[in-house]
Amino acid sequence: MSDQIQFIVEKLNQEPFRKNYNLITFDSLESMQLLQLLNDVLGEIDPKHAVDIREELPEQTAKRMLSLLGILKYKPPGSVSDLSAFRQGLVTGSKPVIHPVLHWLLQRTNELKKRAYLARFLVKLEVPAEFLQDDTVADINKQYEELMEAFKNLHKECEQLKTSGLSTAEIRRDISAMEEEKDQLIKRVERLKKRVETVQNHQRMLEIARQLRLEKEREESLAQQKQEQKNQLFHAEQRLQRAQLQLKEMHHAVVDSKPESLMKKLEEEINFNSYLVTEKIPRELESKKNSTYFLQKVVAEPAMSQSDLNALETKINEVNAQINQLIEKRMMKYEPIDSKFSMYRQQASIISRKKEAKAEELQAAKEEMASAERQMLQKTNQAHELEGSEVLKGDEFKHYVNKLRSKNTFYKKKRLEIAEITAEYGILQRTEELLKQRHEAIQQQLQAIEDKKGISGYSYTQEELERVSAVKSEMDEKKGRTLDNMSEMVKKLNIMVAEKKASLAPVIKELRQLRQKCQELTQECDEKKIQYDSCAAGLESNRSTLEQEVKGLLEECVQEESNYHYINCMKRNLEIQLQRAKEEMKAYVSPDPQERRKAIREQYTRMILEQENLGKKLREKQKVVRESHGPNMKQIKMWQDFEQLMECKRECFLKQQNQTAIGQVIQEGGKDRLVL
């Protein structure tokens, strides 16, 4: 509680509150001051609530605060679970009610500001159903809902833009830079147009340049189409090679197999595909839909803080604990029939899990086999490009591949067995824990009853005797069964060993020959591989040196081209400047006055004379204004004095008229009195 108060005081002493409290002054606040402090915090979150609570009734204050706290999703703590008690404490300004609210509000002020801002636009107004029967009201309500959805979308886009890292300053800089580039390009185009206009037949040259550009674009599009067709041809060749490889494998499979095995293989594939279509894929699809639905619900809800997540986690833990307790109670009260059913259910669940695991493993094996086939096809294509013939054939390593497949099958089988044993071990361990707990509870109850009856230890002795007798009878029975089973098993094993020896003798002979052949082929393959690696390394080094030389020559060529274009442009500029200088000199030296006027020097001379004349006129005008400034100011002062004098005369005249009117009224009143 002290940490909570200290946190509240620290937050209130900071911006924007700046209350300058300490623990003693905050603890000594009265209920009215606490309520006003809570109202100030709520006013900082939502400016509509920045009011003086002395100007409204306590019930109105409590109603307003409760409505805002409901919008902000505040949940009272466990000690104030009753809503009426919480409302009463909020009305009276109780410290156990106000302090947790202040602590909760000050912990997440920025988040609550955002929530209060959104609540102004997203809290839907409930319109009664009888009013919605009116078409006008229904249309307005529909427009209101559409505007609310539009506001949601705009707010999401705004938040995304804020978090995307793009600032308005950067955008303005980019826009200004692009505008500058645009202006430069426009000026450049204008200069080029002016430069081209002096050339003869420039329209025809522009048309030829336009046609050249169109032809280059067409050439690029044709090159792109050619490349696309090459890619399509390459992919078609790959598909053809893949189909030929599959055809070859199918031929080998048909040669080495029988119709019964082919039918069996097809039935297995059909069963597997039907299992995927009817059970596995619909289940996965349903789980994906459920997860998508829950994610959409989570996205539609407002943002949750860390405290909300902690509250949900505690609630989940409580529900899990209740579920475990119910399971334990159910297991403590189960009947033999239920135990059999549970055993069958457990076996069925284990079988279904095994089936799913097998299906997943089969799917993974198929994907792995497809990827291996793609890699093999790529390597075959590379070998064709380098040497023009296949390096390896499937028939040469057939027995080796079969051996690897058997090992892989054996490994997967053992891995599945380990997974099943691990799952069964977990189930048995949990069952053992539950049975131990149940046994301890029963033992405690039995011990309490024995202590109450005065025969403590009786049940333990009786259980030990029964257990010893049961174990003895069970061991005797097991010994008899084990001896019989062992004798039968020894006979079967002897028969099976003899049969296997007889059947494996020719296979072992063939295997020895194949092993010797495999060693020879492996040695030859290693020698060829060494030769291939050395040749590939030499070609790669030559190719890299040639590429570097070509790259250097291309860079040098580009540099020389740029220098040529730069020198050509400079030469063009100098020629134009020289031409302008010649024209200027010709116009200046020409005896014709009209031509001489066209010279730039003459034009600038005329402009200088005009500006000098204009400056002379302005100086004379300035002199006249400066000389007449004093008399004009005196005349303005005299007119102002004359205006004040006339205003005084008007006021005196009005006062004299008022006095004469009052005197006449007084004289008439005196005459009336005399008459009376």
From TrEMBL:
Protein's UniProt keywords contain Ligase: no
One Gene Ontology molecular-function label: tubulin binding
Xref: InterPro entries: IFT81, IFT81_CH, IFT81_N_sf
Pfam families to which the protein is assigned, alphabetical: IFT81_CH (PF18383)
Domain of life: Eukaryota
Keyword terms of this UniProt record: Acetylation, Cell projection, Cilium, Cilium biogenesis/degradation, Coiled coil, Cytoplasm, Cytoskeleton, Differentiation, Flagellum, Phosphoprotein, Spermatogenesis
Domain IFT81 calponin homology: 3-126
Coiled coil region boundaries: 137-246, 309-389, 504-563
A Gene Ontology BP annotation from the UniProt entry: spermatogenesis
Family assignment from sequence similarity: Belongs to the IFT81 family.
Biological function: Component of the intraflagellar transport (IFT) complex B: together with IFT74, forms a tubulin-binding module that specifically mediates transport of tubulin within the cilium. Binds tubulin via its CH (calponin-homology)-like region. Required for ciliogenesis. Required for proper regulation of SHH signaling. Plays an important role during spermatogenesis by modulating the assembly and elongation of the sperm flagella.
Protein name: Intraflagellar transport protein 81 homolog
Organism: Haliaeetus albicilla (White-tailed sea-eagle)
UniProt lineage: Eukaryota, Metazoa, Chordata, Craniata, Vertebrata
